[in-house]
Amino acid sequence: MTKRISIVGGGIGGLAAALACSRAGAAIELFECSQQFTEVGAGIQMGPNVVRVLDDWGLKGPLTAVAAFPERLQVRSAQNGAELGVLRLGATAVQHYGAPYATIHRADLHNMLLSAVTGRSDVELNLDSELIEFEQSESGVTLRTASGRQVHSDLLVGADGLWSRVRQQLLADGVPIATGHLAYRALVPQKVLPAKLRSQQITAWLGPQLHVVQYPVRGGEWLNVVAVVQGHVVGDIEYWDHSTNIVKLRRSMAQTFSALRDLIHAIEHWRLWGLSIRPPARSPHEFARGRVALLGDAAHPMLPYLAQGAGMAIEDAQALAQALTVQELSVPLALRNYADARWRRNARVQARAIRNGQIFHATGLLRWGRDAAMSVLGERLLDVPWLYRGPD
Ligand SMILES: Cc1cc2nc3c(=O)[nH]c(=O)nc-3n(C[C@H](O)[C@H](O)[C@H](O)COP(=O)(O)OP(=O)(O)OC[C@H]3O[C@@H](n4cnc5c(N)ncnc54)[C@H](O)[C@@H]3O)c2cc1C
Questions:
Q1: CB of residue 308 inside a 6 A radius of ligand 1
Q2: Nearest of 157, 134, 122 to residue 10 by alpha carbon
Q3: What are φ and ψ of residue 116, in 5° steps?
Q4: Domain-by-domain residue ranges, the chain?
Q5: pLDDT per residue as tens digits for the range 270-324
Q6: Relative to the CA of 62, which of 106, 112, 141, 383 has its CA 20 to 30 Å away?
């Protein structure tokens, strides 16, 4: 019998889940609280592990049309500009991992997934539909929206992001923790930048208590820049997109290398995020209970320092669809298998992202050790085979 799935949240995770599960034969109703499907103006890096999943879903063509495929990732000192290490991407990533490393505008990735689900007869998309609560029984799950609509299905997927209401009701495990890290994000057409600041590679600038990552998107025509500094959000962190204070950002970058400072100064419009996380998952029970599963940031909000949050949501979606295709299993058992398949890998990525934050922002002896290790080990320190070879 066709499984009926309610998905809460129409971000990258929710749309990926809708696509993967409908391809696996389920009937989907998706509920998004916003009045439109939108994504913020920022970029996303996608490792070969994620590109491979999108390829499996028949999205190679659309991805190639909108993404950039940088040839290398270069790590530089934010203080003096010295090269600390290089990871070859491009053909090397394809050779090692069977897929390239891509960088993409979030809106392009979101649109690609939206186009793929729109028009599928088994997917119904509901905007302006905020989940208020749900109830599960032996026979199914009933959700209720803010407008009073009640919808019954076989299972419910909470893909409702960092502040997930589904998680609150399912696990009641408190709210995410503010990390004291602030991310300033900007997207700028390369052609408006001075020629010396344009770039087609990924560059990570590491400095004491800060780092900056820049990479091309939209076939290389735009540059995405993320500057992370330590500090606190003024106001309510729950509304995590803040109008930003460019003076503060420029002040934080005052002691950095001239080429980096010039880049920061060349960009006028920045948006600010306060970064909040949860500790790495400790058990599969954090991913599914009964007929309700969590996916993406709702399940495993992480620091963006391994550039894998959206990637893990896409991998989750694939694993969920695979778990649900085993015909003889009951829904709770299938979701238990999904949770078993996903929690350890996600916990490892969450932990590695926290560690990367400490390494990226290192000061004193730790910084010295980091730079020395990179010069000795080079690419071996930057490559993450267990991650890029996955999800299996
Ligand atoms: C600075 C920064 C850089 C990043 N860089 C990368 C990167 O390079 N690579 C990468 O893979 N990831 C990156 N990430 C992480 C990535 O952005 C997230 O992991 C990803 O967007 C999570 O997607 P999601 O669909 O789970 O959640 P969200 O994108 O938060 O989507 C949740 C959706 O649910 C909706 N919703 C919420 N509550 C309700 C409700 N009650 N009812 C109905 N709908 C609801 C919301 O409106 C939203 O549309 C970065 C994050 C940050 C902050």
A1: yes
A2: 157
A3: -70, -30
A4: 4-46+103-175+284-388
A5: 888 889 999 999 999 999 999 999 999 999 999 999 999 999 999 999 999 999 9
A6: 383
